[in-house]
Design goal:
alpha+beta, Sulfite Oxidase, Chain A, domain 2, four-stranded antiparallel β-sheet, 9 helices, 11 strands, OxRdtase_Mopterin-bd_dom, OxRdtase_Mopterin-bd_sf, Molybdopterin-binding protein
């Protein structure tokens, strides 16, 4: 079966060209489209929806873990939050929920955490293994009283792509997966800015571009059509990446 991970291994020389170069190849985009449907059907229809991505030991952790995407958001609001060590940061959970939440970083860090050592696979062709710490996303959605109308979870971020805030989205199967966490620490230390401080998403059965960084709002929606470009994420809207990036 053709999978995203198979494409990354078999096509490493091509993938090392980077996201922008890949986007210029119509053939590569068509290949990703065809593999997306196969991968999604395999994960949704064949695999147990709670099947875990492989977890590793500390001995397997990468000595260097590259950052991907934005390394430093260039907005005044982020600069202010960083200067004050995120003391006034709030994570909002709203949309189709009964009890919207607004959590400080201290409140988020006080929640029970899951620690997992997993592999990050980037569409550019590199991988790294790191340890992530944070609460399960499902805990926040349950606390907020997720509506039965909700079908997708949208992550609104503090970095920008051009004039638009960066965003990503996943469906409820990935949102309630036991390895889907809101990480506030990495490799035993507080999350650094290049890796998404103060909070980033880890959805371990998806490629790296789905792992939204600098999250400030989590929105439950029924449809993605009215969210920015309507394709479910910044790279999906702007660079023709596929919404489902399962591996």
């Amino acid at each position: 079966m053709l999978t995203r991970r198979g494409l990354m291994v078999g096509g490493g020389a091509l993938l090392l060209g980077g996201c922008d170069r890949l986007n210029q190849s119509a053939g590569f985009r068509e290949l990703l489209r065809s593999s997306e449907g196969l991968t999604m059907r395999a994960q949704r229809l064949i695999m147990n929806r709670n099947a875990l991505a492989r977890e590793f030991s500390e001995a397997d952790m990468s000595p260097v873990f590259r950052s991907n995407g934005t390394a430093m958001p260039d907005t005044p609001d982020y600069a202010r939050l960083l200067a004050e060590r995120f003391e006034s940061y709030r994570l909002r959970v709203d949309g189709l929920v009964a009890r919207p939440l607004s959590l400080s970083l201290g409140q988020l860090r006080s929640l029970p955490i899951r620690t997992q050592i997993t592999r990050h696979d980037c569409v550019e062709g590199w991988s790294a293994i790191g340890k992530w710490h944070g609460p399960r996303l499902s805990r926040l959605l349950e606390a907020a009283g997720l509506s039965s109308r909700a079908k997708y979870i949208v992550f609104h971020c503090m970095d920008r792509y051009g004039s638009e805030p960066y965003y990503e989205s996943i469906d409820l199967i990935d949102a309630f997966h036991p390895q889907t966490i809101l990480a506030w620490a990495m490799n035993g230390a507080l999350l650094g800015v290049p890796h998404g401080a103060p909070v980033r998403l880890r959805v371990e059965r998806q490629l790296g571009y789905k792992q939204a960084k600098y999250i400030e709002r989590i929105e439950a929606v029924e449809s993605l059509a009215s969210v920015q470009g309507g394709k479910g994420g910044t790279w999906e809207d702007r660079a023709d990446y596929e919404w489902y990036a399962g591996i």
